[in-house]
């Protein structure tokens, strides 16, 4: 079994229909080990997005992630990381709409920054990101 960190971005929490749809999709595909609403502070966002520091979208991304509460999950399933990334779809919403119109980002993404959700990209990223957002979580 594999685990991953999934995060729903602030504009999704402001859309109760989108939030409910995505929670149902998650519940149907994964075991939810932990879930909580989380306010991303400047300090958390700097740690979480350290790999993107210096990129042209970094400031915009960090500001957006602090614009309201997010919803974080620790998910478990076989091939959890790839499975959640597949359900999210391509990073860029215009590509998502074009190539995978039923993925989360195509349905609920608004722009490249406000692309609805995040998912860890590897086992090591998942452990790093879980430690940042769920510091009390004990990895089995
Ligand atoms: P995530 O890490 O959020 O699961 P990802 O792995 O598909 O997405 P990354 O390259 O890690 O994409 O980018 C992290 C986040 O930075 C993206 O989800 C998006 O919100 C933002 N981002 C990435 N590329 C761009 C871009 N070209 N313009 C604006 N925002 C971007
Ligand atoms: Mg990424």
From TrEMBL:
Q: Which GO terms describe its molecular function?
A: ATP binding; metal ion binding; nucleoside diphosphate kinase activity
What are the record keywords, sorted? ATP-binding, Cytoplasm, Kinase, Magnesium, Metal-binding, Nucleotide metabolism, Nucleotide-binding, Transferase
Please give the biological process terms from Gene Ontology that the record holds: cilium movement; CTP biosynthetic process; GTP biosynthetic process; negative regulation of oxidative stress-induced intrinsic apoptotic signaling pathway; UTP biosynthetic process
Q: Catalysed reaction(s)?
A: a 2'-deoxyribonucleoside 5'-diphosphate + ATP = a 2'-deoxyribonucleoside 5'-triphosphate + ADP
| Recorded coiled-coil stretches | none
| Alphabetized InterPro entries for the sequence | NDK-like_dom (IPR034907), NDK-like_dom_sf (IPR036850), Nucleoside_diP_kinase (IPR001564), Nucleoside_diP_kinase_AS (IPR023005)
Residues of the active site are 118 (pros-phosphohistidine intermediate)
Family of the protein in this entry: Belongs to the NDK family.
GO cellular component terms, alphabetically, are: cilium
Domain Nucleoside diphosphate kinase-like per the UniProt entry, residue ranges: 1-140
Binding-site residues, ATP: 9, 57, 85, 91, 105, 115
Q: Name one Pfam family in it.
A: NDK
* Class of enzymatic activity (EC top level): transferase
Q: What EC numbers are recorded for this enzyme?
A: 2.7.4.6
Q: What protein is this chain from?
A: Nucleoside diphosphate kinase
